[in-house]
Amino acid sequence: MRQLPDGRSVCDLRLAVNDRRDKPPTFVDVATLNDEADRCAEHLSKGRQVSVVGRLVYSEWEKDGVKHFKHS
Q1: Which pairing describes strands 66-71 and 9-17: parallel, antiparallel, or unpaired?
Q2: Residue 22 DSSP class
């Protein structure tokens, strides 16, 4: 949980999505804002199931010759 300079709350989460038992999970970064951020910070903890509605963005980049990727 953190505050933006204008006072709004932001709660950053990293979700592990296990869609197949024989594969490692896919990790997805999620940011919630304002009242939702407050509720997430108060009620969520590691291992809790959640449902997320929003936009999923996939990014790829290379740094020092190493490829990186991220869902957020």
Answers
A1: unpaired
A2: T
